[in-house]
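Help needed: design a sequence for this.
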C-alpha cells in the first residue's frame, strides 16, 4: 500500500503540509504559523478531524457532497468502472458507455431544450468551454462581432483565466491580469447591501435593467451572452428578488443574447428542484454543471448546450477539449449519484420537506441581535451580521473581522459554516435530517450568542 500518512500525529501532518502543500485561496504563511485542520474521515453529514472531533458539515464539503459522505454505492461504481475501463479518451472518434449514459441522463433531467453535454473536470474549466462555445456559435451564425460576455460583480464562476474573468471578485481580478478582454460586469441583485430605499421588488427590476443598459452601451451586435448563477453562492447566498429573473429573461430574449445559467452550486437539488433554473423560471441556452453532478466524490464538470447551439457547433470541428473530458470513472460515479438522488426521491424531499423545515428555523435567527437578514433558498442560506439591523449597517471594524470570528467559533461549536465578508453561510448535504437541521440551527444560534457577546466586549458592535 502507498503511504497515506493516516498514522502520523496532527503536528507532523501540519508541518509537512506547510512545507509542501500550497492551499487554494489561502495565505500560506499565516496558515503555516497556525497549522491546517486535518480532516481524516467522514460519514453522513459529519466530518472527523485528526483530533477526533466530529463536526457537522454545514457546507457539504464545498457545496458539493449532496448525498453525504461514505456512500458505498459510489465507491463501488468507481471501483467497478476502474476495473472495466479505467480511462479512454473521447477525442478521436471514440466513446464509451459511461459517458453515453451520463449525457443521456442529463438530457432527461435538464430543461427541455438542453440535450447536449460537453464534459469538463469542474466548474471553472466548464465556464472556459462556455466562453469559447458562445463565441464560436455566433461566428458560425455569421455574427463574428458578437463576442462580449456580460457577467456580474460578486458573481463566482471559477478561478481559471476564463472563469476568474467571468466572476466579479475583486480579489481575483487584482492578481494576474484579470479580467481578460471582452468581459464586463454589472450590478448584482443584492438588496441588503445595495438596495437603498427601494423595495426588494423595485430593486430587483433595477438590477436586471443594468443588463439592458450594458447591452446598449456595448451595442447588441457585440454581445454574445450573459452569465449568472441563479442564486449567487460564493458571493454569500444572494437570493435575487422575485422580479429579477423574469426581467433578465425578457432582456436576453428581446436582445438576442445567450443566457448562461451557472448551476455549479444550484444544480442537482440545492434549491429544492433539479436546477436553479427550474426554481426561478429561467430558460437558459447553456448550463454550467459541476459539484453536485458527482456529489463531490470525483471531479467532473459539464456544459449543457441547447439543441440550437450544439447543432451549430457540430457543423464544424470545435477545437476544444480536456484529456479527462467525460472520464469514464467520473461519469460512472456521477450516474450512480444521479440514480440515488432520483430513486431515493432526495430532490423532492428537499423541496417538499427538509428545505421548508430549514427555512422556518433559519429565518427565526433573524431575531438575533447580531443578524440583519437571514436569507435562504432551498438548502443554502446566509446570515448577514450587522451592528445595526434597522440601518442595514456594516461594522466599523475591517470587513470580515466579525465573519471570521464567527466562522472560527462555529467550527469550535461543532458546525462548519463558511464566512463571506461579515456573513455566515451554509449549504449542508441534501440528505440532512430534521434532527440534524435542529442541531445545525442550535449550533449556529450558540455561535451567534458567543460572537455577539465577544463583539460587544471588544467594542466591535459599532456601525461604520
Ligand atoms: N461556478 C460556480 C457557481 C461555483 O460556485 C465554480 C463555477 C468553479 O468550479 P470549480 O469546480 O472549478 O471550483 C464554482 C465553484 C467558496 C467556493 O468558498 C466556491 C466555489 C469554489 C471554491 C470555493 O464558496 N465554487
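Sure. Designed sequence:
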Amino acid at each position: 500500500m502507498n503511504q497515506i500518512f493516516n498514522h502520523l500525529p496532527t503536528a507532523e501532518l501540519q508541518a509537512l503540509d506547510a512545507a509542501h502543500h500550497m492551499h487554494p485561496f489561502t495565505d500560506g504563511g499565516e496558515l503555516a504559523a497556525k497549522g491546517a485542520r486535518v480532516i481524516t474521515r467522514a460519514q453522513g453529514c459529519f466530518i472527523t478531524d485528526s483530533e477526533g472531533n466530529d463536526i457537522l458539515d454545514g457546507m457539504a464539503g464545498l457545496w458539493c457532497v449532496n448525498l453525504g459522505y461514505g456512500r458505498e454505492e459510489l465507491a463501488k461504481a468507481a471501483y467497478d468502472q476502474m476495473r472495466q475501463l479505467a480511462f479512454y479518451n473521447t477525442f478521436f472518434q471514440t466513446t464509451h458507455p459511461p459517458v453515453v449514459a451520463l449525457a443521456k441522463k442529463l438530457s432527461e433531467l435538464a430543461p427541455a431544450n438542453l440535450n447536449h453535454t460537453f464534459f469538463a473536470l469542474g466548474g471553472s474549466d466548464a465556464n472556459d468551454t462556455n466562453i469559447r462555445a458562445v463565441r464560436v456559435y455566433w461566428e458560425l451564425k455569421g455574427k463574428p462581432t458578437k463576442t462580449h460576455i456580460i457577467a456580474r460583480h460578486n458573481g463566482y464562476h471559477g478561478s481559471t483565466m476564463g472563469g476568474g474573468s467571468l466572476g466579479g471578485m475583486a480579489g481575483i481580478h487584482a492578481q494576474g491580469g484579470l479580467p481578460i478582454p471582452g468581459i464586463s460586469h454589472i450590478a448584482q441583485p443584492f438588496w441588503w447591501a445595495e438596495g437603498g430605499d427601494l423595495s426588494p421588488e423595485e430593486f430587483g427590476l433595477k438590477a436586471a435593467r443594468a443588463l439592458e443598459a450594458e447591452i446598449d452601451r456595448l451595442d447588441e451586435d457585440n454581445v454574445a451572452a450573459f452569465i449568472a448563477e441563479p442564486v449567487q453562492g460564493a458571493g454569500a447566498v444572494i437570493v435575487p428578488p422575485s422580479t429579477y429573473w423574469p426581467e433578465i429573461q425578457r432582456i436576453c430574449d428581446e436582445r438576442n443574447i445567450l443566457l448562461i445559467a451557472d448551476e455549479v452550486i444550484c444544480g442537482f437539488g440545492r434549491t429544492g428542484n433539479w436546477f436553479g433554473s427550474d426554481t426561478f423560471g429561467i430558460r437558459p441556452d447553456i448550463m454550467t454543471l459541476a459539484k453536485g453532478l458527482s456529489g463531490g466524490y470525483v471531479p467532473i464538470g459539464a456544459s449543457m448546450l441547447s439543441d440550437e447551439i450544439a447543432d451549430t457547433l457540430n457543423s464544424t470541428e470545435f477545437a476544444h477539449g480536456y484529456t479527462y473530458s467525460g472520464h469514464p470513472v467520473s461519469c460512472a460515479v456521477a450516474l450512480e449519484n444521479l440514480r440515488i438522488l432520483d430513486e431515493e426521491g432526495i430532490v423532492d424531499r428537499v423541496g417538499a420537506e427538509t428545505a421548508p423545515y430549514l427555512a422556518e428555523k433559519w429565518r427565526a435567527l433573524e431575531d438575533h441581535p447580531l443578524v440583519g437578514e437571514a436569507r435562504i433558498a432551498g438548502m443554502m442560506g446566509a446570515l448577514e451580521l450587522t451592528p445595526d439591523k434597522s440601518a442595514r449597517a456594516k461594522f466599523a471594524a475591517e470587513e470580515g473581522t466579525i465573519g471570521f470570528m464567527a466562522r472560527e467559533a462555529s467550527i469550535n461549536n461543532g458546525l462548519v459554516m463558511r464566512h463571506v465578508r461579515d456573513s455566515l453561510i451554509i449549504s449542508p448535504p441534501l440528505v440532512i435530517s430534521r434532527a440534524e437541521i435542529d442541531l445545525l440551527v442550535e449550533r449556529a444560534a450558540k455561535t451567534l450568542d458567543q460572537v455577539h457577546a465577544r463583539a460587544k466586549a471588544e467594542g466591535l458592535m459599532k456601525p461604520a
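Residues 62, 122-124, 127, 156-158, 163, 229, 233-234, 262, 264-265, 288, 290, 301, 418 surround PXG (CB under 6 Å).
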